[in-house]
Task: structure prediction
Amino acid sequence: MSQITTLTFFKFTGVGSKIWAFFMMQFAHAKLTKVKGLEFYKLLGTGRDGFDPKPDFSTYALLQVWDEENHATVFFKRAALFNRYTSKSSQHYTLYLKNILARGTWGGGNPFKKSSSLEGVAQIAVITRATIKTKFLYRFWKYVPKSQQHLKGNDGLLFTKGVGEVPIKNMATFSIWKNLESLNRFAYQTSGHAGAIGKTRELQWYSEELFARFQPYKSLGKWNGIDFLDTASP
Result:
């Protein structure tokens, strides 16, 4: 069997459920460290729409890397922790991902292994993650609006959300694209993002960074009524 990655987003409404989700960023570790087949995981907060560094206290994410899909399936069907999350949340959406490539490190290592069973799926999912050097925090976040300006109204972008372990300093993005061409067009042909790549090389403003591409091949649930892997979705 081949390693897979899953990413689950949870939406919480109401003060009580939001407070519960916030505290679970600390308390869920005790359960997750004991999950069978789980090789790597991260509990993630999210930013407001538009890659805003201000936290979105209504949305949280759980990134998990599994030694095989069967263990992920058991977790989502039977784990008391996951059932607790779903019962507290107003909606949740899980994507199953197979790694295409991953460069860099996350917490000192690269958790993603290239899949040996890639399928003929058009959509591409991307995770970028970085730790920003403290001395560059202001310059980095000042440049962000320019680097992201071509995302708004981008026909090739299906979904994006800023996520991270520590606000402001440890940031990451997750995005789903219609196809590889759409992703490459944004990454290398739009002035803002291409400029951000140049700034990164020039200033070396990350102390650690990782870039990974995935093939999304299965989903559970919907997000705001949409399954981004279903081409028939509105």
